[in-house]
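Appendix B, Record 12. Input sequence as logged:
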Amino acid sequence: MFELRGSLSKIQNITLGILGAIMLIGFWWLLAEMLAIPALDYQAPRLDDPSLQNLNRDSLLRADSIQFANAKTVGKIYKILPTPLHVIQAYPKLLEEDNLPVHTIHSIWLNFKGYFWAILVSFFVGGLIGFIPLFRGLFSRPVDAMRYLPISALTGLFMLWFGLGDNMKVAFLAFGIFVYMIPVIVQRINEVENVHLTTVYTLGAGSWQTLISVYLPSVISKFMEDLRVLTAISWTYIIIAEILNNTGGLGSLIYWLARRDKTDKVFAVLLLIIVIGILQDRLFVYLDKRLFPHKHYKTKVDGLKEVQTGIYIVLGTFALAVLLPLFISLSPTLLLQGAGLVILAAIGLILMGEMKLWNGLQAV
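Logged structural output:
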């Protein structure tokens, strides 16, 4: 276990992972106890108390000092850092008092919309730079330099350009993502192996056929791994945008909870964001395995076609849900109901394919 770049067995990996989590929680708990403030059974005198009206200022201060000196410790106040138990106990309060599910769904929706526009713009701009030498010479260096922009410093400009609504949040998030995506797409285009290009040219393929049959599968296949890296960045930017405009979302919720000194609730929301980020990362891994099975499976198994069809339906429905309101005035309720029914049917198809896929993998 102490060798350079040594490997761990599966049991060792699981055991050490659990032990590490316990150690981190224990350190967190210890630090919270160290930073806790003693709570006293002391209450400052009320200035409107009739029994105190006849006392002079010196007498009031003397009585208050005596009461404070005789106060007893009745507990602790975890104002700076709550314990893990206090954070867990904050979730029921967040559900009852702060409408946590609505804020969570709002942030997730904005996050996915930001991803959608970032991917759309990145593939268009990155494709022009990566495929066409004219655009590569004109714009490759300026686009690379955009990565060094302090994105958080541009919030004022985005509020000026897009207002204070959700459009500003989505635009800010999309910009924060695609400044990193565009150079990655150009790099992925350059990484396509010449042997594949030579093969399709030998078979008589034209430029469009080469683009569709070689470049797109190769670039998108590798790009799925890059999306995982950008998950943490996307949540950072969406929280910044929501803090600036307190109209809903987890960032807005964190802002108001911090203003009210609800530290336990703030940490609870932060842990929720971490969980969502992990689930989003797993979602990208799942999509990579199902849409690009050649990277993970050596043989063709039944069920992949159904799963892929269901995934494409879900992605297409999401794209329509984002694009249609730009061209057609639709009721949000009607739009959600229609999209929900289509997505439920697609999920049923995915589950059916997953069952066939599971049985096929067990037989291999």
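The first strand starts at residue 37 and ends at 40.
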